[in-house]
């Protein structure tokens, strides 16, 4: 693995992603769509080669594509990118704001899990691969996933983190991830030949997930303000005792980054996604992010890293694996994926808050559609368990995940625009 090759790969991907993002933004389309398409274009083979091969991301031996030396580096940068994206969203999401939409967010997540799972299971078990119940369970689990990183990017670009619909989507996405991990644990437990379920393991994962999320939210809402007040009181007491006293100043950016990594690791350790840990870590600092100027500092890190994530999502599409049968099934699964989340989550919002109007229904329903990297991860687990026999369904899930990722942002941007006019959107620089 040569440094010159790595630097060339980073240069090409970063510049291409930023140019594509700028171009798409000029036409009113979220820039992340351009970044994903860059990944797809890089992976397209022309003859026996592709740009991704030239950049050391892929290798082809005897017609079989495998990961190149630089692929893992891009993968790590992509994971860091989505982690810091969710961390920055957490910085702008206060616990009290999230709790204000708690009931609605829970119903959005619950119906957004149940309805897509049923649709995915029925399609595979009764239409696409009749009798393959275990495959049907995995498609159902992939349909359950929601990639909050995709929607979060649109929300941040529109400067609408404080909108009620945004808080509902963010809250529902956290709950959705917990429920999704439980569904995946159940499905994985049934993937053995006997179909047996390790009930104890599932209950353990469920308990760990809920305890982790609730504990962090309680600490962010109750513990951090008390700690901050205690430090302030101590400094004031010291100043009264000694006018020359200089309080020890922590580098809060370093503390925030350490928390982001620490909570991401802890989330992965207990079976949740790392991005949920980084989001919760951001919430810990939300009440004082403006005071400590964390938002603008983290924004620089996010701007650098997040493009690698969206390019990586595009790279995951293998065009050569697409057949006519796969295309037909992909279209069917895509329609079911959109319908399941749109109506399931929109209905949950309506049941949770009777004041939800048509525009809010659309925003929430569309905002929960992207499957992104979460759906791809579920498909990868299925491929690891069942092998090449699962490859057609794996390809369908990856295509569905990427398609919903591409479709949702422009639709969400339009939906937000119908309710929140640009001239009334508060920009970050407008804050006092």
Q: What is the tally of beta strands? A: 2
Shape: globular
Mean pLDDT: 80
Strand content: under 5%
Biggest sheet, spatial arrangement of strands: 1-2
SSE order: HHHEEHHHHHHHHHHHHHH
Rg over C-alpha atoms, rounded to the nearest angstrom: 22 Å
State the helical fraction.
Answer: over 70%
Parts with pLDDT < 50 across at least 5 consecutive residues: 423-432
Characterize the biggest β-sheet: 2 strands, antiparallel
Describe this structure in words.
A two-stranded antiparallel ribbon has the order 1-2. The chain is built from 17 helices and two strands. The C terminus is likely disordered. It is globular, with a radius of gyration of 22 Å. Helix 4 crosses helix 13, helix 6 runs antiparallel to helix 7 and helix 11 runs antiparallel to helix 12. The termini are far apart. The longest helix has 43 residues. With 432 residues, it is mainly alpha-helical.
């Amino acid at each position: 693995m040569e440094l010159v090759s790595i630097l060339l790969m980073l240069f090409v991907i970063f510049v291409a992603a930023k140019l594509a993002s700028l171009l798409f933004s000029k036409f009113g389309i979220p820039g992340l769509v351009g970044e994903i398409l860059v990944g797809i274009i890089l992976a397209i083979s022309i003859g026996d080669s592709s740009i991704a091969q030239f950049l050391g991301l892929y290798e082809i031996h005897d017609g079989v594509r495998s990961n190149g030396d630089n692929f893992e580096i891009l993968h790590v940068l992509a994971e860091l990118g989505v982690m810091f994206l969710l961390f920055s969203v957490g910085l702008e999401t206060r616990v009290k704001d999230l709790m204000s939409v708690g009931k609605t967010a829970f119903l959005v997540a619950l119906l957004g899990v149940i309805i897509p799972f049923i649709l995915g299971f029925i399609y595979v078990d009764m239409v696409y691969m009749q009798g393959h119940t275990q495959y049907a369970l995995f498609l159902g689990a992939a349909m359950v996933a929601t990639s909050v990183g995709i929607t979060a990017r649109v929300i941040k670009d529109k400067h609408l983190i404080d909108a009620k619909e945004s808080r509902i989507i963010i809250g529902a996405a956290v709950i959705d991830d917990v429920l999704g991990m439980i569904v995946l644990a159940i499905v994985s437990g049934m993937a053995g030949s006997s179909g047996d379920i390790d009930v104890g393991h599932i209950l353990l994962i469920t308990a760990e997930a809920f305890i982790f999320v609730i504990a962090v939210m309680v600490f962010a809402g109750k513990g951090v303000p008390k700690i901050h007040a205690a430090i302030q009181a101590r400094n004031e007491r010291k100043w009264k005792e000694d006018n020359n006293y200089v309080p020890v100043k922590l580098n809060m950016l370093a503390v925030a980054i350490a928390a982001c990594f620490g909570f991401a690791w802890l989330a992965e350790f207990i079976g949740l996604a790392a991005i949920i840990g980084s989001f919760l870590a951001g919430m810990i600092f939300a009440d004082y992010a403006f005071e400590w100027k964390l938002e603008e500092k983290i924004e620089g890190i996010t701007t650098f890293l997040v493009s690698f994530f969206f390019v990586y999502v595009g790279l995951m599409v293998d065009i050569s694996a697409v057949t006519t049968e796969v295309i037909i099934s992909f279209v069917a699964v895509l329609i079911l994926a959109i319908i399941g989340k749109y109506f399931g989550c929109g209905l949950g919002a309506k049941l949770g808050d009777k004041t939800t109007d048509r525009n809010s229904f659309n925003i929430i329903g569309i905002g929960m559609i992207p499957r992104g990297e979460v759906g791809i991860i579920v498909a990868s687990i299925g491929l690891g368990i069942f092998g090449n026999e699962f490859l057609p369904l794996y390809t369908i899930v990856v295509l569905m995940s990427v398609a919903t990722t591409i479709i949702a942002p422009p639709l969400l941007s339009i939906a937000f625009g119908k309710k929140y006019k640009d001239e009334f959107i508060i920009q970050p620089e407008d804050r006092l």
